Amino acid sequence: MKILVTAYACEPGKGSEPEVGWQWVHQIARFHETWVITRANNRKAIEKALAKSPTNNLHFIYYDLPDWSRTWKRGNRGVHLYHQLWQYKILGIAQKLHKEHKFDICHHITFGVVWHPAFFYKLSDTKIIWGPFGGGEVAYRGCVKDFSMRGKITEFMRRIFSLYFFRLDPIVQNNFRNASLLLTRTDMTAKRIPKKYLLKTKVFLETGFSSIPIFERNRSSEKINIFTMSRLIPYKNIRVAILVMKLLTKKLSRVKLHIYGDGALEQDLKLLVENLNLKDNVIFHGNVSHDKMLNNIKIMDVLIHPAVRDGGTHSVMEAMAYGIPVICLDNAGPGYMVDDNSGIKINGKDNNEIIIAIANATFKLLTNKEFYETLSNGARNRVSENFLWNQIGDRLNTLYQKVYHGEISS
Q1: CA-based end-to-end distance of the chain
Q2: What is the largest CA-CA distance in the chain?
Q3: What is the predicted pLDDT for the residue at 336?
């Protein structure tokens, strides 16, 4: 088949969503002649990677908005508007390519949330696939009720925002209507799709791993290194991990919490650490490169991921691939990725219950060698059996074949 893909985020070696885009287009190209429209900003990294490992049936088309339009795009500021303008402008490119190549399937991937749709539905005589996308994930109620007023308002507004796109936004509704297949990151998002489109909706986690790493374990016999890896923003709930440390250090004085990432709450979290007298036990590393992060993982023992809502979470996947048990809330993406053999999923009616449960789970992992090894091996097995990129590519190709032959109801 001939496939056209729009992948705004597509860059090798960067991790997170750019790596997802890069891996997905390669998996599609394993089976099909594939054209990819992506940002010109990604060109240098892509061409460098292709020079080392050419893929003959993978073709890239690069486009960015004019320079003036990037003056108001700085980091996350303005990125949503920029993305939608970019999607609109590449429609003309897609139409010209479709006229020339007659694509069998046009697939919109990356920036996978419901409020980031493409305009592929305007193309005729082709099958349309959108996703995986999220946006329907609901925050864990036991945590949100202990948020600040600002945090509660943010979560409430996000629900209203999400409701609008799932039910009213005309571009999203056109995508729902015209797509042959809708892929959602989580079951939560799938349940938000209007019922008349559910037969063509499939849950498909987008995160994967290339291969189970073979590495020399640098972990000492004494397990003391916990880490968390995310942006320091309210819904990531890193405050909970710090409060867990207050309980843990009463039993394990040498335990360390390594926090990777930065964000709006960084100073508040550092002040919390100081007020709790945990400066010797909590280390803020800031943002580090993906390669450095993977190297640092080798000395880590447990990942605490207390986010109140998430889709496909790269930190969880990477930790599991390296045999690191995960402690997370039993909610959304992480709650699906982690099973009872690879980590511990936490429930609780409020933050206090959750903090105590995470502290107890962490203590057990750090002090019970047999239990730790069982979950460590289970984490690696979970990834090797379900989340390797080639397995994801095989499953995606099966869906492509069903779409092409009209075997998915629309």
Answers
A1: 20
A2: 68
A3: 84
> Higher-confidence residue: 280 or 219?
280
CATH numbers and ranges of domains, the chain: 2-208+388-404 (3.40.50.2000), 225-386 (3.40.50.2000)
> Would you state the structure tokens that stand for residue 54, as one six-digit string?
């050419």
pLDDT in tens, 269-313: 999 999 999 999 999 999 988 788 888 888 899 999 998 887 767
Cα 131 to the chain's mean position, in Å? 13
| Least confident piece of the model among 74-88, 111-125, 219-233 | 74-88
Question: What's the one-letter identity of residue 207?
Answer: T
Question: Cβ–Cβ contacts within 10 Å for residue 91, how many?
Answer: 16
Mean pLDDT for the chain? 89
Structure tokens at 301: 């023992």
Query: Cα-flanking dihedrals φ and ψ of residue 146, to 5°?
Result: -100, 5
The set of residues, in sequence order, having a beta carbon less than 8 Å from that of 114 and lying 6+ positions away, is 133, 134, 135, 136, 162, 165, 166, 172, 189, 192
Q: What is the pLDDT of residues 129-154, one digit of tens each?
A: 999 998 888 877 777 777 778 778 88
Q: Quick check: 104 pLDDT over 70?
A: yes
Instruction: Kindly report the number of other CB atoms within 10 A of residue 356's CB atom.
Output: 15
